[in-house]
Amino acid sequence: MAATASGNVETSFRPKIGCVKDLAESSDLTSIPSKYSYYSTALQIPTIDFSLLNSTSPDQRSKVIQDLGKACQEWGFFMLINHGVPESLMEGMLAMCRDFLDQTGGGEVGVCWKACPENYLKAISESLGLEGSCIDKAMELESCFQILTSNLYPPCPQPDLAMGMPPHSDHGLFIQNQNGGLQLNHNGKWVNVHALPNTFLVNTGDHLEILSNGKYKSVLHRAVVNNKATRISLAVTHGPCLDKVVAPVAELVDSENNPALYHGMMYKEYLEFQQSNQLNGKSHLDRIRI
Fold it and tell me: Directed axis angle between helix 58-74 and helix 118-127, to 10°?
């Protein structure tokens, strides 16, 4: 390091005003500037009005389908409002799961549901430029496989050092969540998800990414814990029947311009592989990536 004519050490490499040290020593520091923040809490996930999918106005319905497609492509997550499920039923379901977990000391509830979110699957098909029934037919959703999972997150004495659920993506087409403490990865930043009352959080699963040949992405998300209150999450995974081989939809594959990005794989095999390995980002999807 060179010396100046005055004999002082050259200072051109000293940290400039605005570095972390300067901020820490500032007497009026009350918050961390956004460029130093690991979390991004200012962003809000897209909101989709479920009732508009049944709108008799072609323009109104077209607009919400475009919004739905954009949410799946850019976020992989959206908040569903006006879904028609009574709030009392949602609260009752959470209460039932809470009672079950209290009796057993924690765990998971695995239950098959027969109902399928046909309206927004139809809208997703249309947003991809396909016929409304395309995903339904391709996945034979009349015999779909659904799982209800409830997880218990008790208070943690050191929440900054623990994780309720590590970063991962989910199997299936869609996952509906009633969830607090959820964070999703958007453009490389972890975003805190703040759901409005009486809403569903919906995220695209690995198999919608496969079906859409990568146009719609499953999204990395994780669950954080706190040191104040017990939290219960409730998630419903919507997938095809277990013996269905899931591959990119033929209409979205072109050997020259849009080659297939994923190998086909039986849904049952995908679940078995996922259940036999630790959650690790999108490693399960990477296994069948071409």
Answer: 80
Residue closest to 202 by CA, chosen among 77, 111, 108, 94: 77
Phi, psi of 267 (to 5 degrees): -60, -40
For residue range 160-190, list pLDDT tens digits in order.
777 778 888 999 998 887 666 888 999 999 9
Token pair, residue 233, equals 């999450």
User: How far is 121 from 158, CA to CA, in rounded Å?
Assistant: 41
The helix (run of H) or strand (run of E) holding residue 223 is: strand 221-223
Q: Please give the structure tokens belonging to residue 246.
A: 């899931």
What's the helix, strand, coil split of the chain in %, to 5? 30, 25, 45
d(CA 31, CA 44): 20
39-286 CATH pick, 2.60.120.330, 2.40.50.1000, 3.20.20.70, 3.50.50.60: 2.60.120.330
> Domain residue spans in the chain?
39-286
User: Phi-psi region for residue 51, left (φ > 0), alpha (ψ -120 to 50) or beta?
Assistant: alpha
Q: Report the alpha-carbon distance of residue 76 to residue 225 in Å, rounded.
A: 23
Tens digit of each residue's pLDDT (9 = 90 or more) over 79-124: 999 988 888 888 888 888 888 777 754 444 445 334 466 778 899 9
Q: How far apart are CA 262 and CA 256, in angstroms?
A: 16
Widest pairwise Cα distance in the chain: 84
- Pair 161, 152: CB distance under 8 Å: no
Strands 200-204 and 145-153: unpaired
DSSP-assigned letter for residue 35: G
